Prior knowledge:
By secondary structure, this protein is an alpha/beta fold. The chain has 2 domains: 2-112, Tetrapyrrole methylase, N-terminal domain (Cobalt-precorrin-4 Transmethylase, domain 1); 115-248, Methyltransferase, Cobalt-precorrin-4 Transmethylase, Domain 2 (2-Layer Sandwich), CATH 3.30.950.10. The chain is 35% helix and 19% strand. α7 (145-155) packs across α8. The longest helix has 14 residues, at 170-183.
Amino acid sequence: MFYLIGLGLDEKDLTNESLKVLKKSSIIYLEDYTVNFPYNLEKFIKNLEKKIKKRIIKANREKVEDLSLIKESENKDVSLLVYGSPLTATTHISLIQEAKKQKIKFKIFYNSSIFDAIAETGLEIYKFGKITSIPRWQSNFKPKSFAEIIKENLSVNAHSLLLIDINLDLNDAIKELKEGLSEYNIKIYNDKIVLCSCLGTEKSKIFYADIENIIKLNSELNNKLNIEKPYCLIIPGKLHFLEKEILEGFEI
């Protein structure tokens, strides 16, 4: 049987039902390539191994995407641990689809994700439009499709959640954002965006500020924001008066 298990946002979020499954699993994998964990991953693995008395194997992109996990589940209980909620990535849907095709039993253990946690900003979840991401640009490849999504969302007064590439630092991400906004002639309200860091953990931070101020405060000299990964950015659409009031409480 194949088990797809969400770790949630914090190291303490693993559910009791998930722990029971891990204790009886023959093979346990942990996906470690999609996100910067907001806690010490090695320490987390060590403590979890001690608790369940089983070895945890790190699974890279190739291991997860070649769908061999499903074949292994044919005669064994195999678990895959995923940060956040387990079905937010297309790859994980593909794993479940493959299990169906091979007639292998599976079970999904849901958990909290960034899509839940952004509600803490005060922005209404149902007013978010398409989700997009800011990739790490290369010298010869600078995709700006995220700006197209922002423009589309703003055209219907929707908020835009921007997920950030695992290897992209904050100031570089904002510089890419600025370039994308400029190229697509996008105007955002008061030039202000929302910055969220380590949501769902004790290190959680939310800031509402204009783009230039975020860059200034996050510079190497000042480092006043002390942003840790994972972080995300939000471009607010049309604000309800209550959304505006709550956001202003995070203003810097």
